[in-house]
Amino acid sequence: MNITSQTGIVGLLGHPVSHSKSPEIMNAALQQLELPYVYVACDVEPTELAQVVARLRACKWRGWNVTIPHKVNIIPYLDRLDASAAEIGAVNTVVNQAGELVGYNTDGAGYVRSLTEENNLLLSEQRVVIIGAGGAARAVGYALATAGVKQITVINRTLAKAEELAHHLSQWTQTSATAILNAQREVEVATLVINTTSVGMSPHIDVTPINPMWLQPHHIVSDLVYHPRHTALLQGAQTRGAVTHTGLGMLLHQAAIAFELWFHQPAPIQLMRRVLENSLK
Ligand code: NAP
Fold first, then answer.
1. Beta partners for 14?
2. pTM value?
3. DSSP symbols for 147-203
4. For residue 145, what pLDDT is reported?
5. Atom 39 in ligand 1: which residue has the minimum CA distance?
6. Atom 40 (ligand 1): residue with closest C-alpha?
7. What is the pLDDT of residues 189-226, one digit of tens each?
8. Does 273 sit in the ligand 1 pocket, CB within 6 Å?
């Protein structure tokens, strides 16, 4: 990489960031397209966030990704939110638009792009069950609801949180909420079942958020967990004859959409996928 006085900066703010694959993916994409930018990961303590954002603004960074634990707390330091970030209530991408810092959330759009790219389905016909009611559920739920799915049922360990998310999503589609333990019927009549909880994530890889015996061949089953790539839920779904969709595509496409917001051109998605797959091996 040829770094000169003209080289611009994009990057990632999080705490910790040492596990992140974003620098590998983004720098490979920047080099492929010969864009004069470098992508760096910054480990930022929560108490340092305001100061860091002010510095990045002063240094005219083109933009940056935001990850745990700053996705919500960064909002007061930005000038404006796009509708995606405002409705989801969290920011994962900041774009410096001629000095104005604009917050976006590309997680939900990344999920929908990955889902429709990898599966032949009509969103308007989907009866969706979202397992979980945290930040990822909010992003995926918003993107699916505004993309016009038929209905969404949120099932969660804590029913009150499922009810709150279902109420929020009801402005765009028909919704309901159920406690996870009582959700067999809701899962059985769904067409698309999405795990947005961390259940099944390494190192606790043998657990599933719902009983896989509830799954049937008519289901598409998505798991946002990408480590491991083929979670116990997806293995169970496959055994039951369902179509499976891993979390890798969402990870890839949320990054690609951020890239497109910064550089106004398509991201080199095949290259980014190869780099991501290699880095997760
Ligand atoms: P979060 O805001 O903390 O929400 C966690 C959700 O999981 C809550 O609904 C919580 O239920 C539920 N949960 C946690 N442990 C549980 C358990 N033992 N049994 C049942 N439910 C449980 O987290 P998040 O930001 O939404 O992230 C969730 C997962 O999505 C993580 O694994 C993350 O890596 C993954 N993710 C993947 C991508 C991607 O690109 N593929 C992007 C974003 C997130 P309660 O409400 O009852 O606590």
1. 43
2. 0.96
3. TT-SEEEEEESSHHHHHHHHHHHTTTSEEEEEEGGG-HHHHHH-SEEEE-SSTT-TT
4. 98
5. 251
6. 251
7. 999 999 999 999 999 999 999 999 999 999 999 999 99
8. no
